[in-house]
Amino acid sequence: MKKLTSYFFALLVIGSLSISKVNSQPKEALKGNISISGAFALYPLTVKWAEEFKKIHPGVKIDISAGGAGKGITDVLSNMVDIGLVSREINPDELKKGAYAIALSKDAVVPTISEKNPNIKDILTIGLDREAAVNIFITGKTKTWGQALGTKSAVPIRVYTRSDACGAAETWAAYLGKKQEDLLGVGVFGDPGLAQAVSKDPSGIAFNNIGYAYDAKTKKPNPGIKVVPLDINNNGKIDQEENFYGTMDEIVNAIASGKYPSPPARDLYFVTLKKPVKNELVEFIRWSLTEGQKYVFDSGYINLSKEKLAAGLEQIK
Question: Which of 232, 244, 263, 299 could form a disulfide with 250 if both were Cys (CB 3.0 to 4.6 A apart)?
């Protein structure tokens, strides 16, 4: 009887070890390809997310290109890419065509000038109110920096805008009550190109996403550029509570707290063609909404509320 009991006990142990061995086998590795294109605004953060995601899932290949939000939405709706990066609200026509937008983070557009602007002291002290910005970028009534600032400066203003369909231009125009096509100025392709153009022109003014106005490592404005403070309360000067442009962290905190207006602050989206179904695509979006959020602030972006992130996760269930 003792021998029989020992025999059954041995079988039980062997069976348990076999089950344990099966359960300890690693899950099948995630594999596949993800193609992404679109907004310059979301490009740096998406690159960071892709780098970190591939450390966990080396079998997933992610190709990313920046070409503006217009290109991103066009590419995804024509099924050329899996994700379109879009830095503006999705319009009704795009939704009808199958655009499925998931908000992942937030940033803002800021007006920019050359650090060699001869009026820079007055610009940083007086700032730019909304009416002055409208008369520079929309109506063209304001021709000199003196007119913009209420000083005697006769230095002309040269305006630069984006030549490509993009969220930055659409968002800056929305702040001024108009559309991208209403913006005046010399057209320049892409955020990097616009930043470079205005940095080289002491009389110039443009607008950039904060990721291109500031250096992500030093957190200071990029060499050659100064960010123009907005006179939000229209009292003709930049008050202490309006002065938050010295570093990227300062402007990011101002956007997060609502001190910086929206627009030009805005949500940033991953857009897919209808609800995503590919395993690797769904997992990348899920990871970006969860673990990936720890890279948002350090990359110069603003984390969305827990409610918005939860809504995004619900969208990909």
Answer: 244
User: Which regions of the chain are under pLDDT 70?
Assistant: 1-28
The two domains 32-106+266-315 and 108-257 share their CATH topology (first three levels equal) = yes
What does the angle CA 281 – CA 256 – CA 177 come to, to the nearest 5 degrees?
90
Q: Where are the beta strands (DSSP E) in the chain?
A: 32-38, 60-66, 83-86, 99-114, 158-162, 186-188, 204-209, 225-227, 265-273
Residue type, position 285, single letter: I
| Residue 275: C-alpha distances to residues 167, 278, 317 (Å) | 22, 10, 9
Give me 68's structure tokens.
């503006």
pLDDT reported for residue 216: 87
Quote the tokens at residue 104. 């992942």
Contact 260/108 with Cβ under 8 angstroms?
A: yes
For residue 121, what pLDDT is reported? 97
Tokens of 311: 């809504």
- Global pTM value: 0.86
Per DSSP bridges, beta strands 186-188 and 158-162 are parallel
Sequence-separated (6 or more) residues with CB below 8 Å from residue 1? none
Domains in the chain: boundaries: 32-106+266-315, 108-257
> Are the beta carbons of 293 and 309 closer than 8 angstroms?
yes
Angle formed at CA 207 by CA 205 and CA 208, multiple of 5 degrees: 135
Does 3.40.190.10 match the CATH number of domain 108-257?
yes
Query: Thinking of the domain 32-106+266-315, which architecture would CATH place it in?
Result: 3-Layer(aba) Sandwich (3.40)
Q: Are 225 and 73 in contact (CB under 8 A)?
A: no
